[in-house]
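re: the backbone from monday

yeah here it is again, tokenized this time
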């Protein structure tokens, strides 16, 4: 006859004196793969727990004891003598089979390795920002959470999205041949996953891809929390959430063609009135700027001053309003392909250097008053705010980045306004 008891015979073990002790034993056995060595302890034991430990070990424990320890083998022997089942069987009958956590961890590690191996076969694997992105999501627990939730396919989907954006003409590094091409996010999501909503704000896939794009443009900076910042991050790689929200501010940009939008631009330029173009307008009908020389600034204050002082007599001017939008790149890319020459500047801060370097690579732009001499002269004309964020280089003038690192100060382009307006008032920019 079997000496094993029915589950109802274990009612005593469901009481206050046993609950924490058996839970601690279960956790330990799951961690060790069921090894009956070592002990389990109770911190701040209750009176019922103290009496249970005394009964199991046969040794008196004072009421003042703050921690009570029970050897696993003694607990196993006590349960077998009393119930006919050892510790492992007793725990299984009370709350189901123990989890083999070492095996689970090994399986989890294997699935993590397989997921990384799959993504490391991407065409982007050789790019530093892509490798750094993978290292970060593996180190901070993101990959483990994907594995445990069964969401590993999202990692492959993220890699496909990034390949579509940052390979195939290398949108992410600004290939001029692809600079005017944009992908609506629903189209990109459907292509990568079959679900048009897979990249809407807040989805796990959106977060994975934006973390990679943030790594690419800012050496691991955090993903922006605001909608405008996230939109700019998408647009930096040629993807758009809304072709009406993507806009570019222009002044004196006449246009060739007989479309409605071209007519609006000519009218605005004729009166020196600032005008906003949407990506939708630019994509619906061809808009090719008539100007052969186009100046580009970062801050609206510069364009506003040019409109106020120079009106329709000033040079063609485009304002990026920070990181250039997809609409901005579309307009300027089309202008360059039609033979226009861009003179580009931004703030003297690390973001401004990145924006300018990207414009040089993407559009063949010529830096405009973005030399070390310009920076040093402007720095001496007033107070400056400290430079923030990761430093970068200035390939068109290596001394500029070096001077900025040494001074540690940022200079906004508004400080150069008199010189900028003087340049805009000339019919031809000096070579």
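seq for it, each position gets an aa:
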């Amino acid at each position: 006859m079997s000496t094993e008891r029915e589950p109802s015979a274990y009612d005593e073990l469901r009481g206050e004196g046993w609950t924490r002790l058996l839970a601690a034993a279960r956790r330990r056995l799951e961690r060790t793969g069921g090894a009956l060595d070592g002990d389990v302890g109770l911190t701040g034991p209750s009176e019922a727990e103290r009496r249970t430990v005394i009964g199991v070990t046969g040794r008196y424990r004072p009421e003042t004891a703050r921690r009570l320890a029970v050897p696993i083998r003694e607990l196993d022997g006590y349960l077998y003598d009393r119930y006919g089942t050892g510790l492992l069987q007793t725990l299984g009958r009370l709350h189901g089979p123990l989890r083999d956590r070492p095996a689970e961890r090994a399986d989890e590690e294997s699935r993590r390795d397989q997921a990384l191996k799959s993504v490391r076969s991407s065409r982007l694997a050789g790019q530093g920002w892509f490798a750094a992105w993978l290292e970060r999501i593996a180190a901070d627990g993101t990959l483990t959470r994907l594995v445990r939730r069964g969401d590993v396919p999202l990692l492959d989907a993220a890699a496909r999205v990034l390949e579509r954006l940052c390979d195939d003409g290398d949108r992410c590094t600004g290939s001029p041949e692809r600079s005017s091409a944009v992908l609506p996010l629903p189209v990109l999501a459907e292509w990568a996953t079959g679900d048009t909503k897979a990249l809407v704000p807040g989805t796990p896939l959106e977060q994975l891809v934006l973390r990679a794009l943030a790594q690419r443009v800012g050496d691991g900076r955090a993903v922006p929390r605001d909608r405008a910042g996230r939109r700019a991050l998408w647009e930096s790689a040629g993807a758009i959430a809304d072709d009406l929200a993507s806009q570019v501010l222009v002044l004196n940009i006449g246009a060739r063609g007989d479309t409605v939008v071209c007519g609006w631009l000519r009218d605005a330029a004729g009166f020196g009135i600032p005008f906003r173009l949407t990506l939708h307008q630019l994509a619906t009908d061809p808009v090719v700027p008539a100007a052969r020389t186009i100046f580009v600034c970062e801050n609206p204050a510069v364009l506003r001053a040019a409109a106020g002082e120079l009106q329709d007599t000033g040079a063609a001017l485009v304002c990026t309003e920070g990181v250039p939008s997809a609409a901005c790149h579309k307009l300027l890319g089309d202008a360059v392909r039609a033979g226009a020459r861009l003179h580009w500047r931004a703030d003297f801060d690390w973001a401004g250097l990145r924006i300018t370097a990207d414009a040089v690579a993407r559009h063949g732009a010529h830096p405009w008053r973005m030399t070390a001499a310009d920076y040093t002269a402007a720095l001496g004309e007033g107070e400056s705010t400290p430079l923030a964020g990761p430093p970068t280089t200035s390939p068109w003038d290596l001394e500029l980045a070096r001077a900025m690192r040494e001074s540690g100060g940022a200079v906004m382009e508004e400080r150069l306004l008199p010189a900028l307006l003087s340049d805009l008032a000339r019919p031809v920019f000096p070579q």
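The first strand starts at residue 39 and ends at 43. Residues 101-119 form the longest helix (19 residues).
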